[in-house]
Every structure is written in structure tokens, then in C-alpha cells.
Amino acid sequence: MLSKKIPFYFLVLSMLIGAALVFIIFISFTKSPKQNKSSLPTNILEQPTLCDYNIVRLSGYRYVKPLLFTDQNCEATTLAPLKTEITNLINRLKSNDTVSSVSIYLRVKGAWLSINPEEKFNSGSLLKVPVLLTFLRMTESNPALLNKQIVFKGHDNKLPNQLIVSETLKPGHNYTMKELMKYMIVYSDNDATELIETQINNKEFQKTFTDLGLSEQVKAEKGAYLTTAKDYSVFLRVLYNGSYLNMNNSEYAATLLAESAYKGAISKGLPDKTEIMHKFGEAGNTKEHQLHDAGIIYINDMPYLLTIMTKGHDLNKLSDAIGQISKLIYNHVASNKG
After folding, report:
1. Which of 35, 79, 165, 212 has its CA 20 to 30 A from that of 20?
2. What is the pLDDT of residue 55?
3. Residues 36-69: pLDDT tens digits?
């Protein structure tokens, strides 16, 4: 068999090249890779896709558990610039004594932001929405309730004093429950609310809260009910989703809210003829007033949910402050629609 000798210098050169390759491979595995800072977040939790989800389902059934709503448990970074603008506006409103405290929950296209989320406010007339949901849910198993009539004997002086008043019930008149619901929501009449509450078992009312993943309502001093802006927004979400009441009752309740006679607060910051279904609430005393407004605002096919709760010394100033915040948010959403 023939054989051919390999030159010595070629063997040496091959060994040197092999050693160099081994060294390069070793360095590549032991050296920390450079990170592209522009592509990595400073806080990994800022990535919405990595947030946990809160899933709320309706219990009480054997084989099904209807979905009420879902939430990502972190704010959307896409709304961070807007949050900064809102915070700056609130600081200006505080500096000129227009407001003393503001809490906001905004939800648009599934993204949300919250400002001063932990503070609880006296819900005032906002509580009329869960009263409405409770009663309408009762009518789904007992439709005859809708046509039940009640005589209004006269105003109950024990009820909280209302400063924002439009139409009221007339003493001595008979009203159907449907008529009372209109007075309760469209005109925010306390007497109509009290008459409806006579038909609601407190257990059913509390169940509305626990069904939606909220804690039972505990009366604070002088009958006040306390809530946060985010918690209260749940009522509007399930109403819009049609996930708590049946479709007809959901649409009926939303229609009443859309016919609200109150045109202050959030409505002040919207262009004329902008569609909104909402409910305001007032509370407080001579030393401190509270004014809140919560609604769903419709911009073409892109609605957004907004709840604003405020404290201050003057109801008119609070209404103007809410209007300014509403306008800022509307302009931002409208400019980014689609």
C-alpha cells in the first residue's frame, strides 16, 4: 500500500489552528452576552403579556360557570403618557383648591390605568346602579314585578339631602316599578330608590356584590357606602358585556343610564351629542363635598369606560374639574382611535 508523508510544518500549523478554534469557542460560552438595552424593559412586569389575569365567573350553577369579565393585573404601559398628563392636571387642580382628592379608573381597548386606586369614597347615588341590577335580576325569575304598582305617600325626610335634583315623584300618585326605575336612574330620585328597595331583600342586594367578585357592602357612618373607582367600574363592565343580566335587561338598564338628565361632570368634557351612559353620585357635608361620575363614552365603535371620584369644598368646582379631566381623556382617546 502506498503512503505519503505529511510535512512537519503542516502538522504544527494544523495544531495551532485547532487550538485557536477551541479557545474562541470556550470564550463564546463563558463570556456574558451583551444585552440590547433598547429591547429589554427596565422592569419585566412592564410587559403586559407577562401580567397575570384575574378571571371572574358567576357561581351558583352545577355544570356551568359563566364568564363575567377578565382583567390583566397590571396597568398598560401604552397609557403611561396619558396617566402623566392626568396626574399633572390633578396637581394643578389641587394647587388652586378646586379639588382636595381625585381617584380615576380608565379602561379603553382592554387596557387600563388607575390613579389613587386605594382611596374609598362615599358612593352616594352611584349605589343606584347596583340597586337597578339587583331588581332587574329579580324580574328575570319574576317578570310580574315590573308592573307592580306602589303609591308614593310623600318625601322621607330621613333620606340624604340632594343638591342635584331634576324631576321628583308626586305624592299620592301610583307608580309602576318600571316608572320608579326611570326616576331612580334618569332623575336620580332618592324617593323612587327607597320604594324600589322595599321590594329588594338585603340578601339579594349583597349577592349582587359578591357575584361580581366584590366584598359585601358594609354601611359606614350615617348609612354611607364606601367604594373605590375601580371596584365601582365593575357594575358598568358587566352591564356593557351583558354578562350579569339577560340581554334585554342589560340593554334596558343601559338605555336608562344613557337618558340621564345630569349633564355636568364627565359630560362637560365631551363634544355635543356624544353618546354616554353614566351615573353621577353626590355625598358629603358642609365641610366637604364629594362628586363622582362613572360612565361608558362612545366614540364611533370604540367605547371607553371612565370613573372619576372627587372630594372638595364646592360641587360646581368639582363638576368643572371632572369635566376638565374628561376632556383631556376624550381628546387622547379620539386622537388614537382605530
Report:
1. 35
2. 83
3. 333 333 333 334 446 787 888 888 888 888 888 8
Stretches in the chain below the pLDDT threshold 50:
1-4, 12, 22, 25-49, 220-222, 338
Q: Which residues pair with 290 in a beta bridge?
A: 283, 311
pLDDT at residue number 163: 84
> DSSP secondary structure string, 118-183?
T--EE-GGGGHHHHHHHHHHHHTT-GGGGG-EEE-----TTSPPPSS----PPTT-EEEHHHHHHH
**Where along the chain do its domains lie?**
50-335
CATH placement of domain 50-335? 3.40.710.10
C-alpha to C-alpha distance for 30 and 169, rounded to whole angstroms: 81
CA distances from 70 to 54, 66, 330 (A): 6, 12, 24
Taking the CB of residue 183, how many other CB atoms lie within 10 A of it? 22
Q: What is the DSSP letter of 301?
A: T
What whole-number distance in Å separates Cα of residue 266 and Cα of residue 307?
9
Query: Cβ(75)–Cβ(39) under 8 Å?
Result: no
Query: What are residue 181's DSSP bridge partners?
Result: none
Cell numbers representing residue 274 in the block? 356624544
H/E segment holding residue 1: none
